[in-house]
Design brief:
- It is built from 12 helices and 11 strands.
- It is α/β, with parallel strands linked by helices.
- It folds into 2 domains: 191 residues, inorganic pyrophosphatase (n-terminal core); 125 residues, Diaminopimelate Epimerase, Chain A, domain 1, CATH 3.10.310.
- Helix 2 runs antiparallel to helix 5.
């Protein structure tokens, strides 16, 4: 952390970027770092790059400062990657990262490839926002920074219900609440509240879901044709996988949606006995033991059969070894 702070202090031109298809933790960490640096490190040029931000996050202070276009001539003293498990997840900002005089990787994914000159990766943290909280000086965290950090933590923990929520996570959240943020409103409007279209798509995905592997895995898919019919965007599908996961009796949930002809974005969740990060990494994705994802090519049957084959193998391993604990998940 000392190296990170020293690098930032000695840099005049700083770039920040998160992963493609930014989620709550990605957006929260990028905006939190931008607001912190521009408030407390005067005289520095700070730029944030992200893909299109979901509308629910537009309330964050300085969200309008995010750039979605890229200038080929930009070179940065320091470029910081946030919430990215691998270099390719930076999308078009990858060039800025590799060409910067110094680059820093701040993350919490267990699948992180440590791709920077300076890596600060804490897999035991709930979120990148929680990692940033440990870097920031607490007395310098104002309401705007606290709001962004809290939102990121809330989103990556499923509002503090996922297994990545720790005692420390709750202490951090409590400290951020003390900054005066409207935490209840923030959670309702960015996590629970759904549009009519989102409810329609969710209903259809649940209606057409199926149980496989003797009821231990639930699967749902949606084609691009159906997504286009509802006029839905990728962020409108965010809540589907978590609703599938809480189906009684299942150990794993899989949701795949078509983003282009025979190209599927796959999300996976585990309730304890399946390491979905291991599966996602096999298919060039990544994430956490209980929440991970990847992009796969092929028809929908091939995608689901390949994913469920790996889930079945892990469940069979547990059965043969009579292991119903989570102790083997990282092996």
């Amino acid at each position: 952390m000392d190296n990170i702070l020293e690098t930032v202090v000695n840099s005049k031109k700083i770039g920040i970027a998160g992963h493609v298809r930014p989620d709550g933790d990605c957006v929260g960490s990028c905006i939190a770092l931008y607001n912190y640096l521009t408030t407390h490190c005067k005289g520095k040029e700070v730029t944030v790059y992200l893909e299109k931000i979901p509308d629910t996050f537009m309330f964050l202070k300085n969200i309008d400062k995010i750039k979605t276009t890229y200038d080929d001539n930009e070179i940065y003293d320091t470029f910081i990657s946030l919430d990215c498990g691998s270099l390719d997840r930076l999308g078009p900002a990858e060039r800025y990262f590799t060409e910067a005089k110094m680059n820093i990787n701040i993350d919490h994914h267990i699948s992180n490839t440590f791709f920077a000159k300076e890596n600060h990766v804490l897999p035991d943290s709930s979120s990148t926002c929680e990692v940033l909280y440990g870097i920031f000086e607490n007395e310098k965290i104002d309401e705007a920074v606290a709001e962004a950090l809290y939102m990121g933590i809330a989103h990556d923990t499923g509002v503090f219900k996922h297994s990545n929520t720790t005692k420390h996570t709750m202490m951090v959240a409590g400290s951020l609440m003390e900054k005066g943020i409207p935490f209840s409103k923030l959670i309702d409007e960015t996590f629970y509240q759904k549009t009519y279209v989102q409810n329609q798509v969710l209903g259809r995905c649940l209606l057409e879901s199926i149980l496989v592997l003797d009821g231990r895995c639930i699967v749902s898919t949606v084609s691009k044709k159906v997504i286009d019919f509802y006029g839905a965007k990728s962020e409108d599908l965010d809540g589907v996988i978590d609703q599938l996961r809480i189906t009684k009796g299942v150990e794993a949930a899989v949701f795949a949606y078509e983003v282009d002809k025979d190209i599927y974005k796959v999300s996976m969740r585990s309730n304890g006995l399946v390491n979905v990060s291991k599966i996602a990494t096999y298919f060039n994705g990544g994430g956490h033991i209980r929440a991970a994802g990847c992009t796969m090519m092929g028809n929908v049957y091939d995608v689901i059969n390949n994913i469920t084959h790996h889930i079945e193998a892990q469940l069979e391993y547990n059965r043969v070894h009579n292991d119903n604990s989570e102790t083997n998940l990282e092996s």
